[in-house]
Amino acid sequence: MRIAGLIGIARALGGAVELARKVAASMPPRAPAPPPPPPPRTPPTGEEFSSIEAPQLASADPVVSAIVSDLLMRSAIGMSHYSAGLERKDLDVRGWLEFAYEEHLAAANYLKRAIMEFDASHHG
What's the pTM value of the predicted model, to 2 decimals? Predict the structure, then answer.
């Protein structure tokens, strides 16, 4: 009885396999798979931009001068890295928001790491 049951199952499976083959043969070919997404954007390390000189702008406040210099340097790095300034047209508003969000996440990581190091050296 067991052998007969197994033979029946085998025949049923064989019929199912044959049916699946026929259905697959009658279907149109699949569209090619979409290309993989681009790799995540990695921020420049600065090493590749060591030849770029930071423009200088005078200010009575040395902190403001340093910030302006940093902004101009980042602009030069961005132009070199992306071959475009912030007027790029390859991103929509959400893309710009995503970039800003990622930069703020990185900033939060840097701040937390510095806070933890400060706390460890002053309270530990």
Answer: 0.46
